[in-house]
Design goal:
By secondary structure, the protein is α/β, with parallel strands linked by helices. It is built from 22 helices and 13 strands. A 6-stranded mixed beta sheet has the order 1-2-13-12-10-11, with helices on both faces. The protein binds 6-O-phosphono-beta-D-fructofuranose. The site of 6-O-phosphono-beta-D-fructofuranose has 14 residues, from loops.
């Protein structure tokens, strides 16, 4: 860190860690009956419990000092004020305008963007409703039963995650599918289940240049035209993009093309028309509830004091783990099967935003930045990688995410689900000492020799940090809140690290090299001279294996 005040604040935290490390988290609870109340924060029916992390009131105090040293509040206001916070692309990052229900103007380059935002939203939600009601039907007059979103990254992960999360809100008889991978098996496996006469394609791409999306869109078009003829394209295709000129060239009717703006980053775009497939599935009212959830969090993030501000706390506790304790990863475990794609969605949001090594001014960073994000739904993860979380040599902080009430009727499942969730966070914190293990084994009648051999394997260090996000029920509004909480958490961390969370130059080199290599892969007669040995060898081996 080459910002002196921030570096000083971080140094204080590093010294403070030595003090905190002298106490076990369980002791912190024993000493402080109010720990749960004081180390949790709420937003309506959502509770963020961070009491099981190894930290004290002094830790929070030092973390807020760090935030102030990094001018977090000023940077947050610049974000909401439409300043060009995405410095390398000279753009604002105003996805919050897409869910702004305040009635107030939001300016980009001196222009209030809200009239355009509201008009475009009204347009794509009206289209969604027309598909749902059957007013817009397929070329043969049949009602649409299947919507296929073709997109990748931010034009796929958000709507795909949300379509699954909110499936209880889906219209009966409507199914949403998501095709993203350039691997032809993705679209082939999807189309196999579909009837062209009842299928609507939405081609979603901010830039409309993305290789995977264009290839999949061409394949979908070919499939449709083969079955129903060229004229069917008009009624079976819609598109979402900021590049309306490029969409027109693909042949999609202008009134079925929905726009958004360059001040909406791809991984922050599910609030825009990129959410069209979701809007068709759950309907305009539920889609607006989802947006309202995002707005709830924006208001909270903008106005709540640092000590009660959930995204600020999430971000700073992440910094405490990443930079002061040196933990390399962060697990996100939803105890909610319908959030199965939430960790994958967060991987792009967090790792594409904060996986950076250069500060805003171009200097190299001097501390670690974004952690490795991974996760799977509980309880499945428990039977896969939780062994490492409990006894592995790395400590991995965990975010547990769980509802108080299921969407399903059977309460017995939910009792077990919830009990598993809190049992895991308790086990990670509590651990089990060698003495405790020996006592248990003795009570089971094992000999001292057997105890000596087995006991070390059954020890849990404990003090493995976790936080829990608890909400009443997974509704569209709750989902909006969850997504926006993580968006702002990522922003908070980017401010501490002084990096730009809104660009993604790290994906460019691979794209460029792929464009150069594709002709060499396609044509076996092209000479491979000039390539490195491995790349040339792999192409040659493929040629050989293909005969
Ligand atoms: O992989 C890089 C990326 O640019 C992401 O940031 C983006 O979400 C994705 O590709 C898709 O881009 P587009 O929406 O322009 O097709």
């Amino acid at each position: 860190m080459n910002r002196p005040q921030a570096a000083a604040a971080l140094a204080v935290l590093e010294a403070h860690r030595v003090e905190v490390a002298k106490k076990r988290t369980m002791d912190l609870f024993a000493e402080d009956p109010r720990r749960f109340q004081d180390f949790s924060a709420g937003l309506d029916d959502l509770l963020y419990d961070y009491s099981k992390n190894r930290l004290t009131r002094a830790t929070l105090h030092h973390l807020f000092d760090l935030a102030r040293a990094c001018q977090l509040e000023k940077r947050r206001d610049a974000l909401f004020g439409g300043e060009k916070v995405n410095v390398t692309e000279k753009r604002a990052a105003l996805h919050m305008a897409l869910r702004n229900f305040s009635g107030h103007a939001i300016h980009v380059d001196g222009k209030d963007v809200m009239p355009d935002v509201l008009a475009e939203r009204a347009k794509f939600l009206a289209f969604a409703e027309a598909i749902r009601s059957g007013r817009f039907a397929g070329a043969t007059g049949e009602r649409f039963t299947d919507v296929v979103n073709i997109g990748i990254g931010g034009s796929d992960l958000g709507p795909a995650m949300a379509a699954r999360a909110l499936s209880p809100y889906a219209a009966p008889g409507l199914r949403a599918h998501f095709v993203s991978n350039v691997d032809g098996s993705d679209i082939a496996d999807t189309l196999k289940q579909l009837d062209p006469a009842r299928t609507l394609f939405i081609v979603s791409s901010k830039t409309f240049t993305t290789q995977e999306t264009l290839k999949n869109a061409q394949s979908a078009r070919h499939w449709l035209v083969t079955a129903l003829g060229e004229a069917a394209v008009a009624s079976h295709f819609a598109a979402v993009s900021t590049r309306l000129d490029k969409v027109a060239a693909f042949g999609i009717l202008p009134d079925r093309v929905f726009g958004f703006w360059d001040w909406v980053g791809g991984r922050y775009s599910m609030w825009s028309a990129i959410g069209l497939s979701l809007a068709v599935l759950i309907g305009p009212n539920h889609f607006e509830d989802f947006l309202r959830g995002g707005f709830d969090v924006d208001e909270h993030f903008r106005t709540a004091p640092l000590a009660e501000n959930i995204p600020v706390l999430m971000g700073l506790i992440g910094v405490w783990h990443r930079n002061v304790w040196g933990f390399p990863a962060q697990a996100v475990i939803p105890y909610d099967q319908r959030l199965a794609r939430f960790p994958a969605y967060l991987q792009q949001l967090d790792m594409e935003s904060n996986g950076k090594g250069v500060q805003l001014n171009g200097d190299a960073v001097t501390q670690a930045t974004g952690p490795i994000i991974f996760g799977e739904p509980g309880t499945n993860g428990q039977h896969a990688f939780f062994q490492l979380l409990h006894q592995g040599t790395e400590t991995t902080p965990v975010d547990f995410i769980v509802a108080a009430e299921p969407n399903e009727a059977d309460p017995e499942h939910h009792v077990l689900l919830f009990a598993n969730c809190i049992a895991q966070s308790e086990a990670l914190m509590r651990g089990r000492s060698l003495e405790e293990v020996q006592e248990i084994l003795r009570a089971q009648g094992l000999s001292e020799a057997e105890i000596g051999a087995l006991a070390p394997h059954k020890v849990f260090s404990g003090d493995r940090p976790s936080s829990t996000l608890l909400y009443r029920k997974l509704t569209p509004r709750t989902l909006g809140r969850l997504v926006a909480l993580y968006e702002h958490k990522v922003f908070v961390q980017s401010v501490i690290w002084n990096i730009n969370p809104f660009d993604q130059w790290g994906v460019e080199l691979g794209k460029e090299l792929c464009n150069r290599l594709a002709p060499l892969v396609a044509d076996a007669s092209v000479d491979l001279a000039g390539l490195d040995g491995s790349t040339a060898g792999l192409i040659a081996a493929r040629r050989f294996l293909q005969g």
